[in-house]
Amino acid sequence: MAEVTTNLSIGQVAERTGLSVHALRFYEHEGLFVNPVRRGPGGRRVYSQDDVDWLTVCIILRASGMPLPALRRYADLVRQGAGNEEERLTLMREHQAHVTAQIGRLAECLDLIRFKVGVYEDLLNPDSAGDHQCHAPIPSAAAQPTEIRIGDARVSGS
Amino acid sequence: MAEVTTNLSIGQVAERTGLSVHALRFYEHEGLFVNPVRRGPGGRRVYSQDDVDWLTVCIILRASGMPLPALRRYADLVRQGAGNEEERLTLMREHQAHVTAQIGRLAECLDLIRFKVGVYEDLLNPDSAGDHQCHAPIPSAAAQPTEIRIGDARVSGS
DNA sequence: CTAGGATCTAGAGTCGGCTCTAGGTCAAGC
DNA sequence: GCTTGACCTAGAGCCGACTCTAGATCCTAG
Fold first, then answer.
1. Residue A154: what pLDDT?
2. CB-based contact A110 B64, cutoff 8 Å
3. Residues 97 to 126 of B: which have CB under 8 A from any A CB?
4. B10-124: CATH number
5. In this model, does residue B75 exceed pLDDT 90?
6. What is the pLDDT of residue B49?
7. B67 touches strand C (CB under 7 A)
8. Check whether domain A1-81 has CATH 1.25.40.20, yes or no
9. With an 8 Å Cβ cutoff, is B77 touching chain A?
């Protein structure tokens, strides 16, 4: 069995994860890795494919708005090994709820945005009768202090 | 007809929009209002229902991730009055695209999260055969790096 | 031998979007 | 008259998540 232990430099990992080398060092410093990053000659970081796989998960969790402390908590649990699956499940379920809620909120916002787009389209092209339905809180814009949370998930690229 | 011009204090507006008084002053300072906020005796801010309606729109746009500069741009256009509807439409369409993309990204993330939740559920309740399908690009990434042993793999510089 | 490039550490800086503080004005109630 | 509370301005501070800098080390190529 040829131990194909991939040995990647920080630059290579940056390249294939999309994270910067700075971010990789930062993540390590923040304790987000499951296993300590190995070091090669000269104290240089050496990453395995498992590290890259873990980072891929991290990136997805981050992209969906999980804050670093929660990610660190999750990494801690995985690092501790079997036995804490319930806690991991709880953590994941909570995050799932967050993401689901966020998607719902965005969908609501999208409703207003679509409505606005429709209004301007009609205005610029009055021929086509506009029949936009908007099952959202736009007519009653003055209604309730809808609890919309500003500033939640920030996702790559932007 | 009785002039029903609602005159609201900053505190009242804060209360019914959910924004803080600090945020309201900040938004004004940032030029996010369509019309200049009136002032009452003692230089106190006086808001109309229109202001509140506009803020409601702002809140929704912010909640969907529109950055302040874009919001300011939109306010500028509205302030300038009729004639720039195309630009407003463009702005709104761009934002619509952003939000749609963001929802898509979050949905993808949710796929991994659901998968993870499923894995842990099965692990804790092995009776029910779990058949989770994950129609996302994550099968390999979701592999559990539980207890990864890092041998004394030496990194030969080669 | 020397230059270039990737890496290292520790720590400072950046950015967006508020949030808070300090010091002051003003109107109402006791 | 005095206190309280809402409001004012200008500007400082905060938070999260990086990003960048400085100065050093090390490897490889020419």
1. 41
2. yes
3. 99-100, 102-103, 105-110, 112-114, 116-117, 120-121, 123-124
4. 1.10.1660.10
5. yes
6. 95
7. yes
8. no
9. no
